[in-house]
Specification:
Chain lengths: ~325, ~325, ~325, ~325
């Protein structure tokens, strides 16, 4: 059995990783840790105030530590379900120890000068690791993932935006002068478990945020190599992302071209489901590790719909999928 | 006191109209009617199975009738909160009797040959009334409303789409080659009170519908005189519309131009509220008769956000506002 | 025009009071204040981050102050929508200045030695005001309210519990050996606007809390003069209280006795609505100032159902109702 | 591999059974059937209009049939996820063919004369099967289940009520003169997938129903051998049951007695989880096959809280658990 450490295990993605690992036949949990000043330190992850869902399933304590020397001994795999700056600071330590690191934050996703200064508010100190990091969009980078030591797992919006668009762009079906308009709506869990007025039950309401200013816009554009207009919205639901993507195809492109492009890249990918007719609803994927994609073409206007569970294909399930790929396990082990 | 008849009073818009009229100092309810085969016939509108909210407020019976001859005697005003084809059939009767008719359906909104055949599935029989009907987008057509006998009150999506876009287009700020992309999400009440799997509590989920095929797309394009891409979505909430509109301005247009255009048309309009910074959330207007509008401009990309309560500014409140305008009452009487 | 000060105007009840006062023909807002260290200080109450619903309706600033000497000059009425201990500390100041004070906290509701020490964690310093305070259960204490200077407005659970039970107990219909079992479920707004994990959108779930230990249990028992078992629950909705009360009637009591008792006390009370058959749902009162009551009797078992909007009849509307009674206005002015 | 037929597979419980069977290593799906006039006939269960969640997981068609002769050939196991009267009519057919039948309806749960006439509106025709049926409350009747041919799986309310109360009553801890007061709130899925105004998204609201008149009251009382007051409520959520049970213990009973009784019967039962302190929330069990139980004792008043997912431990998971017990598989196979 390989041994995996989950750093930031009290968050939504971290707890989900713990659940997945509890069912994994080839990997077991080495330890669950939380930040040094966490009020959850010492509690079981299945405690009443945390994840009672896990009672009897994962009853391990959350260890508060900033010193991993006693824990790291037998750890093969590290999941960083931490804030961006924490991942940035911690990842090199685990990498230098030889661990395979799956980072769920944005700290190693975009290899551009000034990107972190501009969008994340810190100056990146580990250019060599940024160079080596593999972007964990699992359906596209599986070969690179197999040989990577550091996998930067993309989050919810970038996954929901790229999976439908990447086949279109790769196959040259879109008119690049018309920037795709990506309107996405996310469940409240996307903002994490920390209490704030923004996620107060009575304050949550449908609204757009970070217009023209969300850090996922440049991440999406960078990995698609295509400018986009990305408008995130908060929805009044717990989990899930629904993305509506409006774009313009090149003259002569027909619906079969779209479907063929999707099938070309996803036909044998178990966690992407293509709708030949109709298109998915959010409920199709709640609690499930899939990204579902549908589309309609009219004249040269194309609307693509993609949905995923933001905590699963948009976070923990994709990290687990990357781990399965990295170690040669079945891609969906513990996921379905 | 003027006397108003509400036809279709058991629906969400009809019941809301009844509530508004109960508070109106110059207009009173003549009768509430429902279709002949309604199971609600004879019940009080405030019955336990209907609108217990109205208990002690409006305790009138719902009269099932297809013969209005005994009712019409003293009626000055008719609200048709009915299916499109019912409004189409009934409106001329009331108009011929001299009533002022406010139709909340789509039956008289678009004066185009073939429009009703193509989008509503019936052939329009009353071209002369279609010619005379005034489109009740209250902030724009108040002068025409004052002299109209038939007011075709626009519904939720068209109101949420047109109120932000109309000043832009009227002032010539948009590049018409780039069709505005209107993504709107509506509460479930938008589909009415009739039970169906689509509004089953456990089946409702965020999803797009009628891609490139919704009848409100040509209505919006007709009244804006601008092609648009309109994508409606169903949301998991009861009331409200949130619209995110992405468009392209002409070169040189700056944010002040946008704000000036909004202020020019809405500064003195009490039911449209302009956000100078930030932009509205759905909760800003739930249960309220306003349409709230905000925007952000970046380079030549403009995103406008508009929100309204689909049953109020998107239906009953706008109908009441039109009535107030028509009879010279204060525009907001009984509404705020 | 009388002038009213709202202390704690940034909370849910305070903002609702501001809305009611904006519509009141005989009372106007003197000032809105918040606690000294509030992040909301200086913002308009209708600010985007606060109550954009009030934009154009109440656009007054929230004044942070601990010194009311400059504000109190022309103030006739004070609403304390504040934490219990804040009300306890502030009320005497305003009372000594001659203001009529409506306290929405629990600081003056129960005139029992040790009650505040035991249930609220502070020792009450103002026994003489506790003696003079009138409990603002409006339907029962209207005569006393008319002459009171300090009205302790009961909150959501006590109102929902007492309004149905008080006629039963007053008329001697219940077997007192069987303690009424009061199961009530409250919307999340009942816990206020302060962010915490307990009201995090993703953490909210149906659950019972404070079993046998809620401070409203002794308040209810004290004012009913009857021991009760009170079990509060949190629900996954924003507003409202639904109470299911199971009790035992004395031998020979029949359904007509129950209905007669309810009618005896509430027939002429506009904000209590009695169901002769059926019983109310939560939706009957959302956003409305009523308490609705229904019941079923079988043999000697009686179940009563009462519902109210926790922020209205359970807080702001009842405070406003008390104010209307105190000053001889129509009981429902600005409320319906 | 054993072969299982699911009758009524288009309902919520039936679809869940199909999902469970898709993961079961020792049992496979023989066929999925629906009633003869179903609009879903011929569709895949994973169709867009049905359960797109199952796309790629269970892509079998729903067969509309009233003649099972061609299907029954190789069927070992039959799940009846059907209306009560349909189960009543169909079960004997499958039993006579030698199948092991798990009936999720109420048709064979209570072996009392007149019970079905009074509470279900039909006269029971199969007294000999009623005599042989084993009540599938899995934690209590496992020995009988192992040898049964017909297992009458209890539904959501009876399971949530009996699991906490049965140890109390069996150990003689309660004062039987005080009928336990069972207040339970159920998600909307409890009423099934058929569209009606009662489950219209905009009509759903917290409310009590069937006061003193729900058919589960006598079922609970019969199997507990104790009169109870059972008050069901509808909640504004999709899945889950939360039960609050207020009862009276005999003099001298202490908290340890309660805990010991729970542990005595459930310590080795993997699908019942006991809270030693605190008590469960609904979210503890959403999507999970557990019944979670907690309690607080004060003096001689005992409040027990139990929660379960109404479609899982309250339906499909308990049926699957019974199947596992019946055939000697691990009790939780395919469930956790």
């Amino acid at each position: 059995m390989l041994k995996a450490l989950i750093v930031g295990a009290s968050g939504y993605a971290g707890a989900q990783l713990a659940y997945y690992l509890s069912k994994h036949p080839q990997v077991e949990i080495a330890a669950l840790t939380v930040s040094g000043n966490s009020l959850d330190a010492g509690k079981l992850i299945s405690d009443y105030d945390l994840y009672p869902q896990l009672k009897g399933v994962v009853d391990l304590p959350l260890i508060a530590t900033s010193d991993y020397s006693s824990i790291i001994e037998n750890v093969d795999i590290v999941f960083l379900a931490t804030e961006h700056v924490v991942s940035h600071d911690l990842a090199p330590y685990f990498l230098d120890k030889g661990c395979i690191v799956f980072d769920l934050s944005g700290a190693f996703r975009v290899n551009l000068a000034d990107f972190y200064t501009q969008y994340y508010g810190f100056t990146h100190q580990y250019k060599h690791w940024l160079d080596k990091a593999v972007y964990g969009l699992a359906e596209w980078n599986d070969n690179a993932i197999k040989n990577a030591q550091l996998i930067a797992v993309p989050g919810c919006y970038p996954t929901a935006a790229q999976l439908p668009l990447k086949p279109m762009i790769t196959e040259g079906l879109l008119d690049p002068a018309y920037w795709p308009v990506i309107n996405a709506i996310s469940g409240v869990s996307g903002a994490g478990r920390k209490a704030s007025l923004k996620n107060h039950f009575c304050e949550v309401s449908i609204h757009a945020y970070s217009l023209f200013a969300h850090r996922h816009q440049p991440e999406i554009a960078y990995h698609l190599d295509q400018q986009v207009i990305f408008t995130p919205h908060l929805g009044n639901f717990k989990r899930g992302i629904h993305a509506t993507i409006t774009c313009r195809v090149k003259q002569g492109v027909i619906a079969d071209d779209i479907l063929n492009a999707l099938n070309k890249y996803y036909k044998n990918k178990p966690l992407v489901r293509i709708y030949q007719k109709d298109w998915p609803s959010l409920k199709s994927v709640e609690g499930l590790p899939y990204c579902d994609i549908g589309f309609v073409l009219k004249d040269d206007h194309l609307i693509m719909i993609s949905v995923e569970d933001n905590l699963l294909k948009g976070a923990a399930a994709q990290a687990m999928q990357c781990m399965n790929i990295r170690f040669g396990f079945n891609e969906t082990t513990s996921l379905i």
